[in-house]
Each structure stands twice: as C-alpha cells, then as structure tokens.
Amino acid sequence: MKFFNRDSLDYEFKEKFQAGLVLTGSDAKSLRTQGVQFNGSKVEIINGIPTIFNLTIEKYKFAQNLEIDTTAERKLLLSQKEIAKLISLRNQKYMIIPINIHLQGHWFKVEIGVGRKMRKYEKREKIKAKEASKNY
Question: CA 43 to CA 114: how far, in whole Å?
C-alpha cells in the first residue's frame, strides 16, 4: 500500500528522509481503506517538532468520534540529528514536502523530500533527456 504525491514531480530533491507518522486509530484505519490526498501538503518545523500540514485523511466510516478534523496537523517522528539537518536546510530556503506514504510492517511511514521547485525550462530539459535515453 503506497500513496504518491503528484506535486513532488515538480521538485528537485537534495535529500530525502523517512519519518514516522503520528496517527489516531481511526486515521490509521481510514488510511488502510480509503487513502490520502496530498492537496498542497507541506512540512514545517514548529518549536523543533516537524509537522505535516494540509494532508487530508478522510473520516473512517465506522469511527465513533464524529468530530474528526480531516486536515489536522500531524506530527512526524524523526531523530534529533535529522531534525537539526531539516532546520538547517529549511534556513537555506529549501522546501520540505511529503513524497509518499507507505506501510512498513504495521507502521505508516512518510518519505519527505527537501528540495526546490523546478522551473519550466528545467522540467522541459528533464523530459528531453528522458525521451533521448528512451530512443537509444
């Protein structure tokens, strides 16, 4: 089970990290059955805690609590070294966005990428290089 962020194709990543995702029980069940939407989601570091924003997880239809926020801020689990590296890269004007969410064992993991958005001409060059390698 793997959910991919289509917006990540527009980015050139300098580095990628694997982080744990803090979920409630109904969020985890909903991820397993219904999936996730990455509508402009991003990762920010608030008070030394990496947090993911605008990640939409639909309500689990059998959940008892009916007042569940589908776009709530969710914390990420990273080591202190990784958090320090993310902070230093963020201070260098790099964006931090989620690339995909997948199941590892029985834990949900988020792959986050640190990079910058590609410009149109860079995207065209990337497509040209890909097509040129396809022809040979």
Answer: 10
